[in-house]
TrEMBL record:
Lineage of source species: Bacteria, Bacillati, Actinomycetota, Actinomycetes, Propionibacteriales
PROSITE patterns in the cross-refs: SSD
Protein name: MMPL family transporter
One Pfam family of this chain: MMPL
InterPro entries per UniProt: MMPL_dom, Mycobact_MmpL, SSD
């Protein structure tokens, strides 16, 4: 029989007289916030995505004092459709370059012609600002180039400004597309899960409003605290809110449906269901929030913003799932479950001869065999983790190759490496002394004077090595060693920034990964008041992470053809898999503890598996599908993060939580709960 005693707060939320207040007031407040406030805004800076205090970041900070710090560089590339560029075409190109205000160049003016005669380039300064501002400037530049290009000549824009513009274009309307696809996937899976033409609408409505409110709350908080975020932050936040919010909703509705089989009064049924569900959801949400807040320790500003935004999102998702959803559901009758309306006196999930009941029985017969086989599968998949390497080249950042990348690849065929995107050395020392120190470095092709002002000088250094090569990396290290004794001299630019990004990501992993584990373990210790069970659960989520990374690595380097993972993938995948993966174990184990109090450890775990198997599997499949939706954005890092999490959640849901955790609990018996005793 159900225990109808509940915390006074949960009782008030779903009481006959007050349920409508908790159902509609938050929804109205969220909608008013959307209309009156809107999402927060903050001016982006060149430092937002650079690792704090590293050399390339210090170079960028020093560059802000230069007289032309308000501009970015675009490289205009003209190529002959056939043969070489003739003199008439070159004359038109020089005139166009002068109209565009091209800088630098050779003795023949601002246009430099390749030795093979098939291509020419010019350097154009583009006013910097937000990503949107730069994108608009580059779009105008490309329009002018298309209109002015001579017959038989193709004009393209590349360089740092064009790459930034094409990156911004990835997110042009992306949040709407991501939201639409996510909502569609969630709606489809909810219909399949509930097999009702009505019920799915309620949780989807609640989670959808929660998502929009979370976007407002998170961006307003970040704007108030001056925390950096980028275009991808709101997209990832939306995916997380939909995933976590729907998971919480599935758990609540499943328990509510179960209680309706015991009690005629739906208000009493929801009171019990909410009281039983709240502990697991609050424990889960707290664990995820603490894990996300560890990103505030990152050396990269936008990573800190992502952690704060997602933490706010999970709090909002949990609130709407535990306050708005139960109050709204209870206002409707049992008919919302039509055609499978739960009736009083029907068998409860734990008593039914369900698929998950049969799975539990099979595991119970040979728990050691199932545990060994599952560990073997996880170990086999984890082998791929040994080969994982990180660090994508610039031309690998996009799933669909944009103009800036295709033009850069074409440019490299006719011009020396490093010519159009030189390494920038910024100094307060004598630039002539710095130049002499750099000219003696192996791998430096040429040193060119750059802008000066306010006691700061910039030198543009062309490297002999190809971008992203070991030779280029060695040259950057040698350059830094050569100028380390000079006053405030820093090496920046694309190549140096990529090297520092790897170092910053390594620092983050070394600090944040152990902290996430410690927080998750601590949360489980407090929740279960046990030592053995938390250690087992943490070990299983670690195994899931290793297996999903290994499997994803084989997928990325095999069929998908990537050479590496993005630097941020291991950290973000670890965070979401460990924090979210432990959710399902919390849902299972808290139910097992509840059942064990009356039926003992062995039967408690089997009854919990039978009761939660369907809902947790549905939640896991839904969460995996939602994260896979990140692949609709043509940015490799998001596709990789989404793929790893999708694989990991499916492994955790279908294998680890279904087989390994029950098998381990059955093998350990009462020791699984040590030192706590689950039966009086």
């Amino acid at each position: 029989m159900s225990d109808h005693r509940a915390h006074p707060v949960t009782s008030v939320i779903v009481a006959r007289r007050t349920a409508w207040l908790f159902a509609f007031l938050p929804l109205v407040a969220a909608l008013l916030g959307l209309v009156l406030l809107g999402e927060g805004d903050r001016e982006q800076t060149p430092l937002d995505q650079l690792p704090r205090d590293l050399d390339s970041t210090l170079a960028t900070e020093l560059e802000q004092r230069l007289p032309d710090e308000g501009s970015d560089t675009a490289v205009v590339l003209w190529t002959a459709d056939e043969g070489e560029l003739d003199q008439d075409a070159l004359g038109e190109l020089r005139a166009t370059a002068e109209e565009l205000g091209a800088v630098g160049g050779g003795p023949d003016g601002p246009v430099s012609v390749a030795e093979d005669g098939t291509a020419a380039i010019a350097i154009v300064q583009v006013a910097s600002g937000s990503a949107t501002d730069v994108a608009d400037e580059v779009e105008d530049l490309r329009t002018q180039l298309d209109e002015s290009a001579p017959d038989g000549v193709t004009a393209q824009a590349t360089g740092p400004a064009a790459v930034q513009a094409d990156l911004a274009a990835v997110f042009d309307g992306a949040n709407f597309r991501l939201l639409a696809v996510t909502a569609t996937v969630v709606a489809f899976l909810l219909v399949i899960t509930y097999r009702s033409p009505v019920l799915w609408i309620i949780p989807l409505l609640v989670v959808g409003v929660a998502d929009r409110f979370a976007a407002i709350a998170a961006t307003q908080v970040m704007a108030a605290l001056d925390v950096a975020w980028d275009e991808s932050t709101v997209g990832i936040l939306s995916v997380l809110v939909f995933g976590a919010g729907t998971n919480y909703a599935l758990l609540l509705i499943s328990r509510y449906r179960d209680e309706l089989r015991h009690v005629e009064d739906r208000y009493a049924a929801m009171t019990t269901a909410l009281a039983r569900t709240a502990e697991a959801v609050l424990a889960s949400a707290t664990t995820v929030v603490l894990g996300l807040l560890t990103l505030l320790l990152s050396v990269i500003p936008t990573t800190r913003g992502l952690g704060l935004a997602c933490a706010v999102g999970v709090v909002v998702a949990a609130f709407f799932a535990l306050v708005v959803l139960p109050a709204l559901l209870v206002l409707f009758g049992r008919w919302v479950f039509w055609p499978k309306v739960p009736r009083t006196g029907q068998a409860a999930l734990v008593d039914m001869d369900s698929f998950w009941h049969r799975v539990g029985d099979r595991v119970a017969r040979r728990p050691a065999v199932f545990a060994t086989a599952t560990v073997a599968v996880i170990a086999a998949l984890s082998i791929g983790l040994l080969g994982v390497s990180t660090g994508l080249d610039q031309d690998e950042q996009f799933l669909d190759e944009p103009e800036a990348i295709s033009a850069s690849n074409r440019l490299a065929e006719s011009f020396p490496a490093g010519l159009t995107d030189p390494t920038r050395v910024v100094t307060t020392a004598d630039p002539r002394e710095v130049g002499k120190a750099l000219e003696g470095v192996e791998g430096v092709s040429q040193v060119q004077p750059g802008p000066e002002g306010d006691g700061v000088a910039q030198l543009n250094v062309v490297l002999a090595g190809d971008p992203g090569s070991d030779e280029a990396e060695d040259t950057i290290a040698a350059m830094r060693a050569a100028v380390e004794d000079l006053d405030e001299t820093h090496v920046g630019g694309t190549e140096a920034t990529a090297i520092d990004a790897r170092e910053g990501a390594a620092r983050d992993r070394l600090l944040i990964l152990p902290l996430i584990l410690a927080l998750v373990l601590g949360a489980l210790l407090l929740l279960l008041r046990s030592v053995v069970a938390p250690l087992v659960l943490v070990a299983t989520v670690l195994g899931t992470y290793a297996a999903s990374m290994g499997a994803a690595w084989w997928l990325f380097t095999g069929p998908l053809g990537f050479s590496a993972l993005d630097e941020s993938v291991p950290l973000l995948a670890f965070l979401f898999l460990v924090a979210l993966g432990v959710d399902y174990n919390i849902f299972l184990v808290t139910r097992a503890r509840e059942e064990a109090a009356a039926h003992g450890s062995r039967q408690g775990m089997l009854r919990a598996l039978a009761a939660t198997g369907g809902v947790i599997t549905s939640a896991g499949v839904l969460l995996a599908a939602v994260f896979a939706v990140l692949g609709v954005l043509p940015l490799v890092v998001l596709a990789q993060v989404g793929t790893v999490i999708c694989i990991g959640v499916l492994l955790d849901t279908l294998l680890v939580r279904t087989v390994l955790v029950p098998a381990a609990a059955l093998l350990l018996g009462d020791r699984f709960w040590w030192p706590r005793k689950v039966r009086a």
